[in-house]
Amino acid sequence: MSVTFKALENILEHYPPSSEHLISALQDVQAKFNYIPPEAMTAVCDYFSVPLSRGWAVATFYKSFSLEPRGMHDVRVCLGTACHLKGGGRLVEGLERELDVPREHTTKDMRVTLETVRCLGTCAMAPVVMIDEEYLGGANIRSLKKELKKL
Amino acid sequence: MERISNVTELEAWRENLRAALDPERPVVRVCLGPGCLAQGANKVSLAFQSAIKAKKVEASVQPLIKETGCHGFCSQGPLINLDPFDLFYVKVKPADVEEIVETTLAKGQTVERLLYSDNGSRYRSASEVPFYKMQQKVVLKNVGGIDPLKIEDALMAGAYRSLTKVLTSMTPEEVITTVEAAGLRGRGGAGFLTGRKWRFAVENARKNPGPVYVVGNGDEGDPGAFMDRTLMEGDPHAVLEGMAIGAYALGANQGYIYVRMEYPLAIQHLSIAIEQARALGLLGTNILDTGFNFDVQINRGAGAFVCGEETALIASLEGRVGEPIPRPPYPAEKGLRGRPTIINNVETWANVPLIIEKGADWYAGLGVPHSTGTKIFSLVGKLKNTGMIEVPMGITLGRIVEEIGGGVPGQDRFKAVQTGGPSGGCIPYELKDTPVDYDSLSKVGSIMGSGGMIVMDKRDCVVDVARYFLSFLEEESCGKCLPCRLGLKSMQEFLDKFAKGQGSPQDIDDLHSLARAIMKGSLCALGGTAPNPILTTVKYFKDEYLAHVVEHKCPSGVCRDLITYSINPELCNGCGLCVRNCPQECVSGEKKKPHTIDAGACIRCGQCMDVCPVDAVMVA
To answer: Is the Cβ pair A119, B221 closer than 8 Å?
Structure first.
């Protein structure tokens, strides 16, 4: 999706021009474009009258902001404590091999972004992998390969 | 929904809702808690809806399907409770639904095979199941019972009764005194006395008049914990009511709930709850014609563990990078926008309406002196029954793990329990009689924390666990103060060495003294508590550290550089699953004959062990 003036205006009109809303507005930008396009950052910082450096400081400090476009699908492997003990680390390695992409990166065809996350709050079902909106409890590399084929 | 203009009207409305209930009407409660969702509970709920529609049951007895929050017994999910039959079905699949509709809902009979059974006994009702029997659900009493997206359901269960009580019959001072007398301590981890904190804020606001803010901390960042998620998703009105009561006591008109972004459902449920409460006039201006104004806004976290620390949380609310600042001044003196701000964990807020409703004496009677009330824990890891539990403070660790959790499957004892997440400690089996309260846990080197309880068995390596927590904290450290930024990295280097079988016993001692220095020198609790997992594992499991550095062995078979995989020819049935899943293609063998692993090519990824259906892959 290209960054249009209209799209940014639709986001910013929800907020009074106080820098308190910087994070929330950037979260909306991230949701809309799937990453923080540099031109959007400039517009947001202008609107809140904060230096660009503060905008980028926020975007690089918080993990939920992505500075590069993300893939069509999200594969998130939980590495919370329970998932770690039950082999979550082995699942990421398996997926890295299967998708041929290192963790926290997107496949070359922009189809899948492979991420690790420190706890999805579904610990009782460890190890857990989330593919887009769906939680997969008690996952193993075999079941994940099947799920990936469905994407 | 129409605005309710006063307390009398609210009570009349509540009574009408209750009177309109048909006690004979079957109710199907489908648990949509995190655990059940991960096992396909939403498909079960859909199956019920279509099965009931297809059966075209008479309108007068049309069963009601309620999608509830977490019922707790996640390892047996998806869970279904059926009233008025008082039946509890476990591991329900969409394919089971038609039989439940035909047998139970239509004829009132039991589907025996879906009952929970253990050690040869079958249990019809959830209340008889040992997992639930030992618990005391007070804060969670409505979670799993009500539909969290319907404020009517919460009202019928008594929501906002404590708020009307304080608005009509108590002064702010009386509310604070009651919370103080109850002995409530912060449920987020540090365990500071809630009432004392409130009083401090009120005194500061008196000295320096202006707005006061209340904040609900739902930034549940500890890996391995989902108590706050359960509460916010399953009974959001309990959190809102607690915050409204606190706001009244503190003279605040604006509240914020800070929820971590990994919890989209919690954000959704809270948003809906806030909208519904506003529509009824339970939030907003002139609430129930008492002149009290209070509203709540949700702020989504942006993915930073350190934002659970209160000064970092405030920075994040103000749209800044979440770096902590030194305290004092405490937020109760100078917080959001420089004004007195009370930040309590969402579980702490949910305790407040109970204290108001039943009184400080009742509350102080739960639990033990200095640690009153109950505590919610997420009981996870290597045990039979995993899930969400609520127990009175002071119950022993051993009873939680063995009696509620059912112990470690196939082993006669657990190895250790980690409480308090990455800031907590690792408590060995030998200390299983430790009472779970704030003071006893800190005596053994751990902390209560927010309530994650992770059980380890003999296949878990303490060096690996300490290394895991440290890598988490090192990643999440904001980098502002040196002891945390560089200290955690140095500790990590020690542990990386140990995991490779390198280092010396002297290194273990050096690690220990480095840990103590980081504890003393760090700016906030992230660095200040980060050494806990190391200090406790070195203290209780020093022999295991020595095994790594002296004998170059990982006794639990976890640390990759110190282990080898092999296949037990007596168990292997030659199914070939390991062959197909080995990334190195180093497993070989004839079909239906025992296979072997080429140890030279093996990268010890463990994939073969994970997929083996007969547990023939061994590690040593």
So the answer is: yes
> CA B21 → CA B84, B104, B150, distances in Å?
12, 20, 15
Residue B144 domain-assigned? no
Residue B70 forms contact with A (CB below 8 Å): no
pLDDT at position B57: 60
Q: Is B42 on the interface with A (CB under 8 A)?
A: no
Place of tokens 């492979």: A114
Contact between B609 and B619 under an 8 Å Cβ cutoff? The reply is yes
pLDDT (mean) for A111-121? 92
CB contact under 8 A, B226 and A63: no
CA B366, distance to chain mean position in Å, is 21
Task: Let me know whether B43 and B61 are in one domain.
Answer: yes
Residue B58: what pLDDT? 56
**Using CB atoms, which residue from B34, B319, B421 is nearest to A22?**
B319
Q: How confident is the model at residue B56, as a pLDDT?
A: 63
**pLDDT tens-digit map of B103-126:** 999 889 999 999 999 989 999 999
Quote the crossing angle between the two packed helices A141-150 and A88-99, to the nearest 10°.
40
Tell whether B14 lies on the interface with A, counting CB pairs under 8 A: no
B452 and B478, same domain (yes or no): no
Do B318 and B335 sit in the same domain of this protein? yes
Q: In this structure, are B350 and B485 located in the same domain?
A: no
Which residue ranges in chain B fall short of pLDDT 70?
Answer: 56-61
Q: Kindly report the pTM of this predicted structure.
A: 0.95
Structural contact between residues A35 and A70, judged by C-beta atoms closer than 8 angstroms: yes
Supply the pLDDT for residue B467: 96
Contacts of B339 in chain A (CB under 8 A): none
In a domain, B445, yes or no: yes
Angstrom CA distances, B389 to A48, B32, B219, B438, stand at 45, 16, 20, 17
Q: Is B602 helix (H, G, I), strand (E, B) or coil?
A: coil
Question: For A22-36, how does the pLDDT look when each residue is reduced to its tens digit (9 = 90+)?
Answer: 999 999 999 999 999
Task: With beta carbons under 8 A apart, name residues in chain A contacting B227.
Answer: none
Q: Quick check: B385 and B409 in contact, CB under 8 A?
A: no
- SS3 assignment, position B604: coil
Give every CB contact of residue B409 below 8 A, 6+ residues apart in sequence. Answer: B382, B383, B384
Asked whether the beta carbons of residue B418 and residue A80 sit closer than 8 angstroms, the reply is no
Closest chain B CA to residue A136: B38
Cα B557 from Cα B137, distance rounded (Å): 39
In Å, what is the CA distance from B50 to each residue of B43, B53, B65, B77? 11, 5, 11, 21
B472 touches chain A (CB under 8 A): yes
Q: Are B377 and B389 in contact (CB under 8 A)?
A: yes
Top residue of B256, B337, B389, B454 to mutate, by most chain A CBs within 10 Å, is B454
B27 and B113 both lie in a single domain? yes
- Cβ–Cβ of A85/B454 closer than 8 Å? yes
- Domains belonging to chain A, first-starting first, are 5-61 (no CATH), 73-150 (3.40.30.10)
Is A67:A33 a contact under the CB 8 Å cutoff? no
CB pairs under 8 A between A and B: 155
- Domain containing residue B469: 462-549
Two tokens, residue A143: 């079941």
- Residues of chain A with pLDDT > 70: what percent? 99
Q: Do A24 and B299 touch (CB under 8 A)?
A: yes
> Helical H runs in chain A?
5-12, 22-33, 38-48, 52-61, 81-85, 88-99, 141-150
Q: CA Rg, chain A, in Å?
A: 18
Q: Which residues of A touch B460 (CB under 8 A)?
A: 85
DSSP codes, B455-492: EE-TTS-HHHHHHHHHHHHHHH--S-SHHHHHHHHHHH
Rounded distance between C-alpha atoms, residue B317 and residue B335, angstroms? 11
The answer to whether residues B612 and B619 touch, using CB atoms and an 8 Å cutoff, is no
